[in-house]
Design a protein that fits this description.
heterodimer, A: alpha+beta, Ubiquitin-like (UB roll), 5-stranded mixed beta sheet, 3 helices, B: alpha+beta, Aldehyde Oxidoreductase, domain 3, 4-stranded antiparallel beta sheet, 4 helices, 8 strands, 34% strand
Chain lengths: 82, 146
């Protein structure tokens, strides 16, 4: 099981801040494909992954990164701090 | 190094005084305070969301980087989250160094990196719309300076 988190408009589109996902996805991109195939709300959130960022265990990563050993995945738009 | 992520308001002047006090090893203290700005004249509040845990880790890593790179005597970062009214402080950074160039540059670097690499997202709430603030290409480009 993997803890998957969503922030900002990604959270709003998917409708929950986080959820436990049972997945065999080998990479972030595969996880995105899996979620997109599930329901329209995921497809809406992941329509353009170039507009998204991903963090693996709270560190910024890439969509082609492997998920082996990862406990927490977070998807969000580019950050707007400061 | 002092890092605080909080919903409570802070007094930038008092924070800066406390940060600068009692140091005999520094010749320069630089600070920056970010304030909620009402660009269109209709802003009711700015909602700031963050990623607890990653926020603190990312700010610590960026600040440690600045301390090492500019040989800072100390650095301070405060960043708020939650619903903030126009005119109130969102965040501040302060740097202390032997000389001013290092203190200025390190503060500038911290601001560029906090803007694009610390996991915060801003949403503008007005009477008739609620809009997520989009990241600017210029903000990402600014990182290339460093």
């Amino acid at each position: 099981m993997m803890n998957v988190m969503y922030f900002a408009w990604v959270r709003e589109r998917i409708g929950v801040p986080q959820e436990q996902i049972d997945t065999q996805a080998a990479t972030v991109a595969e996880l995105v494909q899996e979620l997109t195939a599930r329901e329209e709300r995921y497809a809406a959130a992941f329509a353009d992954v170039s507009a998204l960022r991903v963090a693996l265990d709270q560190e910024l990563s890439e969509f082609d990164a492997p998920l082996a050993g990862v406990r927490e995945v977070a998807f969000f738009p580019p950050m707007t701090g400061g | 190094m002092l890092i605080r992520v909080q919903s409570e308001v802070f007094d930038a002047g008092a924070e800066l005084n406390a940060f600068a006090q009692g140091r005999h090893d520094v010749g320069a203290v630089v600070s920056f305070t970010g304030v909620v700005r009402d660009t269109q004249g209709d802003l009711q509040e700015m909602q700031i969301e963050h990623y607890p845990g990653m926020t603190e880790a990312a700010i610590s890593a960026i600040t440690q980087d600045a301390v090492t790179r500019w040989d800072l005597a100390d650095a301070l970062v405060i960043h708020r989250f939650g619903a903030l009214k126009p005119g109130v402080p969102i965040m501040m950074v302060a740097t202390a160094a032997a000389h001013r160039v290092a203190a200025f540059e390190a503060a500038d670097f911290l601001m560029d990196y906090l803007k694009s690499r610390a996991p915060f997202w801003k949403k503008e709430i007005a009477a008739d719309h609620a809009t997520w603030v989009a990241a600017k290409d210029a903000d990402e480009d600014a990182l290339k300076r460093w």
